[in-house]
Design brief:
The protein is an alpha+beta fold and about 300 residues long. Helices cover about 35% and strands about 15% of the residues. The protein is built from 13 helices and 10 strands. It is globular and about 65 Å long.
């Protein structure tokens, strides 16, 4: 470890706090040996459904030094998106909380770029790339390794202090930094997430059959939704929060301070009938800056029509 490792690590964590990240941890870049076989088995079981991109860049997913040449450290960060107000679901369809506001990819990447620019001013130039759910990286594995939290039975990263309603991000860099240690698991004997999943997508402790997940069906799936989902989607038209909503640790979630993640005004007023009559033009207006645009107008209409079958 270099002489500056501790100093730079402390500086990075201070900057992360300044830029609004709720936690920051560091791990040594290298091959994720512990995750290799389980990830390979997950793919072999076809738990990724039609998400064929999960099969791509297998080696890079497990080793960030192949993704960012010369990298030595993975800086893992979390950014809170828990809403101050929950949108009423009475006589309306449901949207996952992470999609209430603007698209997190753009917002968090911009914050990361500004943070890196400040770090370079103080440390000097260093090579890095920033990511948030946008590259072949096993984000939760790196976050767990760097002590941000543990991977729960619903396969989400969970912390005792904040629960799981946050985005993950990474800075993979060539700085030699001080590693953090993983935290302990605090799921215990609780099975609330497994019991609550209406489609039995949590096939066993920490293993998710993605092809059975409501989020997969409403976002990732491009074809027709299979009849196996009929009467099981509980009015979710984009994403699903069930396994997080029932998690006891999420009683500690606190509202985000990021205004761009605040609920879109339309989402607060629209009822079921309003959604049914939505046009392409209105969809584009409402979701122009939202993650919901990923499912496209045709996808959202498909989801709503399936819910009314």
């Amino acid at each position: 470890m270099s002489q500056n490792a501790e100093k730079y690590s402390a500086l990075i964590k201070a900057k992360a706090q300044k830029f609004g990240f709720q936690s920051c941890g560091i791990s040594k870049a290298g091959f994720l040996e512990e995750e290799a076989k389980p990830f390979e088995n997950w793919l072999k079981q076809n738990y990724h459904g039609e998400m064929s991109y999960m099969e791509n860049y297998f080696d890079k997913r497990l080793d960030p030094t192949l993704l960012v040449e010369g990298s030595k450290s993975v800086i893992s960060l979390s950014y809170n998106y828990f809403p101050a107000e929950e949108i009423s679901t009475i006589d309306s369809f449901k949207i996952s909380k992470y999609a209430y506001g603007n698209d997190y990819h753009e917002i968090i990447k911009e914050i990361l770029r500004e943070m890196v620019a400040e770090l370079r001013e103080e440390i000097g130039d260093f090579d890095c790339r920033v990511f948030t759910d946008s590259a072949p990286i096993l984000e939760r594995s790196w976050a767990r390794k760097s002590g941000l939290g543990w991977i729960g039975k619903n396969a989400n990263l969970i912390t005792k202090q904040q629960g799981s309603f946050y985005f993950l991000a990474e800075i993979i860099c060539d700085l030699d930094l001080k590693e953090d240690a993983p935290t302990t698991d605090h799921c215990g004997t609780c099975t609330k997430c497994i019991d609550a999943c209406p489609t039995d997508a949590i096939v066993s402790d920490r293993i998710i059959d993605g092809s059975k997940c409501i989020s997969y069906a409403t976002i990732e799936l491009k074809n027709e939704i299979p009849d196996t989902f009929k009467n099981k989607m509980e009015d979710w038209m984009f994403g699903c929060d069930i396994c997080q909503d029932v998690c006891p640790w999420n009683r500690f979630a606190t509202p985000t301070l990021e205004e761009k993640f605040r609920p879109n005004a339309f989402l607060k007023t629209f009822k079921r009938e309003d959604w049914k009559e939505i046009t392409q033009e209105l969809f584009s207006e409402i979701f122009r800056k939202s993650p919901v645009k990923r499912t496209r107008f045709s996808g959202l209409k498909r989801n709503m029509e399936f819910l009314q079958k």
